[in-house]
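To whoever is covering the structure queue this week,

Two jobs came back overnight. Logging them here so there's a record in the thread.

Job A:
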Amino acid sequence: MTRVLAANSWTNNGDLIVDVARLHFRDGDSILDPTYGHGIWWKRADELPMHQLSKLSNDPGSAAYSEGHDFRSMPFDDNSFDVVAYDPPYAAKGGRETSTIDDMDARFGLHDAPATPALLQDLIDDGLTEAVRVSRRLVLVKCMTYVSSGKLWLGEFLTLEHALGLGCRLEDRFIHVGGIGPDQKDRRQIHARSNSSTLFVLRVPMRRAR
């Protein structure tokens, strides 16, 4: 069997989730995706060891659209799902009209998403708090360290810090190596270009564990 690697250039998140599932999903798992968007994570859902996938999105263009849905305040009891797969918008586009992440905003129905890294991190953290609340075993969360306004924003470290503060334990880490956006030819490069995102597998606090 091909080994699951911690860092890989998976074709898309659907291929990544297959490897995550090989190590961490169980037959009979109930899974919630409160940031379903266009469902890319679940392109190979029929291969995954799970019983039920519940999907929610605040994108009107999504098949899982639910009017008024907010992943920071979900209508579920504590410990309702075995796994919560949380994929928030994790890179702030700032004020530049040349941003290449408009599609990310569209996938999450967040055309008015916070433009600054600090405000976006607040949104990520609030959603992560809620994901941990409704999970009884694992939370998957995608995040990224990136450059904004000429400064390095430590998104993955801040997200992990918040998770640990909630009592979670880091179970695993997957680094998704991908492409990069178009060069800003009129800008002098002062940082390495970000070309990866990170998926953390978090075990929720033991008092919530199954």
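Job B:
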Amino acid sequence: VGYFVFGLIGSGAGYLVIPVVSHVWAPTFLMPVASALDLSAALAINRTSTRNVVRAELHRMIPMAFLGAVAGVTLLVSLPRGAVLAVLGSAAVFFGMLTFADPVPKVGARQGWAYVAGFIGGACGALFGIGAPPYQIYLARRLTDKAQLRATVATVVFFSVGSRLFLFALAGLFLAREFFTFLLLFPFGALGLWVGSR
């Protein structure tokens, strides 16, 4: 179901997957597995929609997303599980309220917000596996074309998740057990992505 949503909007699997599965798996196990699934999904979308990507937005957001991911991974390995889950719940409520408060965003955000969205998205992605809301909140106020919005969000997610997964591997959080779990879940994510994309 999470990757059905990803297929529709170019991100968003974490909205469903992370809050539910975090009741079963520790964040330090869940985040690398979810990141590997997100990377696969973003790569699949990028292969078919590169012509719609707005590259100028990527140049502003991607470097900051990497710095945010460094900060997020550092916090993930140092904070206790209860603190990470409390912040995850608070972030989910905040982004949900923000969406309800402004369901049809007006276009016209300043370019400088790209740096803020990139950093916060990178940090939230590493900590909670839900990094796309800041990207979407910013880009929805910059791009009017749905295809451009979906493709640009998916591309930022691809680079952000790729750097996050690399950092997880450096921190010793993406090893054989996590990789095997990713392989078990991959067919289900791929099916959801295929249906959502259509």
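Note for Job B: Residues 125 and 131 are 4 Å apart (CA to CA).

Please reply-all if you pick these up so we don't duplicate work.
Q.
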